[in-house]
Amino acid sequence: MPKSLSHxxxxxxxxxxxxxxxxxxxxxxTVNCYETEDVATLFGWPAELGAAKGAFVGEGPGGLDILEIxxxxxxxxxxxxxxxxxxxxxxxxxxxxxxAAGFAVRGPFQTTAATGLPMALVEVAAGGVAFELVQFG
Length: 137
Known about the structure:
There is one protein chain. With 137 residues, this protein is an alpha+beta fold. The chain has one domain (7-136): 2,3-Dihydroxybiphenyl 1,2-Dioxygenase, domain 1, CATH 3.10.180.10. The protein contains three helices and eight strands, in the order E-H-E-H-E-E-E-H-E-E-E. It has an eight-stranded mixed beta sheet. A hairpin with a 5-residue loop joins strand 6 and strand 7 (118-126). It is globular.
């Protein structure tokens, strides 16, 4: 069973600046850069914008999943924390439980993690905060 957050999904308007800060100043050394085309499904960004650049920074619990906002969306999508991710053994069942408990739920979605492995996720809003129930593998 989950005991803590896995990672935080953060939107930025300058991926290189954030990466420079977390590696050079904050001294977080593990950085896995990636591109994803799943932003249309996951965040509602127009599919025609193509892939978004991102980076997973850190190891294990407490990592940052930093995703760069496409230039065309920077007037409408603001930088900041987007999702608090909690690893779950069955994201779909957890989403069903959240829905049954009266929470707003989106998903489940199937995507690919920064590691290249399959990932399922469900977004749940609780008290104005967006959570990601995520299942790896």
